[in-house]
Amino acid sequence: EAQVTQNPRYLITVTGKKLTVTCSQNMNHEYMSWYRQDPGLGLRQIYYSMNVEVTDKGDVPEGYKVSRKEKRNFPLILESPSPNQTSLYFCASSKADWGKQFFGPGTRLTVL
Amino acid sequence: GENVEQHPSTLSVQEGDSAVIKCTYSDSASNYFPWYKQELGKRPQLIIDIRSNVGEKKDQRIAVTLNKTAKHFSLHITETQPEDSAVYFCAASIVSGGSNYKLTFGKGTLLTVNP
Prior knowledge:
The complex is a heterodimer of chains A (112) and B (115).
Chain A: E1 4-7, E2 10-13, E3 19-25, E4 31-38, E5 42-51, E6 54-57, E7 65-66, E8 76-78, E9 87-94, E10 102-103, E11 107-111
Parallel strand pairs in A: 2-11
Antiparallel strand pairs in A: 1-3, 3-8, 4-5, 4-9, 5-6, 7-8, 9-10, 9-11
Chain B: E1 4-7, E2 10-14, E3 19-25, E4 32-38, E5 45-51, E6 56-59, E7 62-67, E8 72-77, E9 86-96, E10 99-105, E11 109-114
Parallel strand pairs in B: 2-11
Antiparallel strand pairs in B: 1-3, 3-8, 4-5, 4-9, 6-7, 7-8, 9-10, 9-11
């Protein structure tokens, strides 16, 4: 089944404790992206990747890191999480085909 | 950078009526405008999209129109049904070589269809 998966789905952590949210797609998509969704703010792009080893900042990259060492994986790294990074995070992927993005199920992160 | 404004933030209609959601964008280089539907507790899903070389696109009860001169685009849902109730997001992107670059979303419209 073609899909985008994220892990974990739910995470409660404390300020400053490094964490990684994984994202994987099995559709051989070139493009992958991370978004955060906050009430009243909609979806905001954090980072995106055009292909392996090619990443760039979205609109809200501060406090996040990404890497794209393999085509199928695009992990999101929070080196020192803070409470303002409490949010619902979505990973998405698409072929190089005018952006029909497929979203993962989301990761709800709470930073205490 | 790109700024996308979406109105209204909430919209309530009676079943069978039409619903219209409007978005404006700021970057004249944007050439791809997707619309996503997000049901409660679910992930966003693409419902329709339009490229800048097209003025209108229709898919059954859903249509999108684009006015490049005015830099606005709209989603039209006819004969609304309760299952159309969801949050709808518009977005704008510059697509080059067939792949997305940055994608900027509007803040969303909560559509409620009352039976």
